[in-house]
Amino acid sequence: MARPHSATLVSVGFSPDAQAMATLADDGEVRVWDVASQQVTTNFPSVPVGGVVERFSAAAKVRATPAADATAGLPGSESKQTRTRFTTTTLYTGHYGCVLFSPDGRLLAVGEAKPQIRLLDRATGKETVIPVPPPADGITALAFSPDGQTLAGPR
């Protein structure tokens, strides 16, 4: 098979009919390959392992006066309004992420470094994002039931 990614692979999965192979690299790139032709049929980004992702942000108006302003606090002095953006970030590290085809091969489940699962319907191209509530970390494993009606993952 051709060189699948320039980054290190985190997960590989074959479709049930072995006609397609999905790969996930630690840079977050997900690719679906046609096994016979060794060509990429689907390519989309995911959250990179070791990447920083914004989890919360809020804009707030605050009154600020530069320290060098000698009129600070004096009657009649005006302070400037500035916008400050408060952000918390999370660094996703370790071995997170996995790819898995449903038993009928129609769905591709992608467990990401961010605590969420993406389901890609290969027939329609529709994507569904399933957030995994705290205190979950990144997704390390997924499993479909044999009938494909249930997807199990971490909680």
Can you characterise this structure?
With 155 residues, this protein is mainly beta. The protein has 2 domains: 9-51 and 93-152, 7 Propeller (Methylamine Dehydrogenase, Chain H), CATH 2.130.10; 53-90, no CATH class. 0% of the residues lie in helices and 48% in strands. The protein is built from no helices and 12 strands. Strands 1-2-3-4 form a 4-stranded antiparallel sheet, with no helix packed on it. The two termini are 35 Å apart. The model is unreliable at 53-74 and 79-92 (pLDDT under 50).
Quick recap of the structure?
This protein has strands at residues 9-14, 20-25, 29-34, 39-45, 52-64, 80-91, 98-101, 107-111, 116-121, 127-131, 143-144, 151-152. With 155 residues, it is mainly β. It has 2 domains: 9-51 and 93-152, YVTN repeat-like/Quinoprotein amine dehydrogenase (Methylamine Dehydrogenase, Chain H), CATH 2.130.10.10; 53-90, no CATH class.
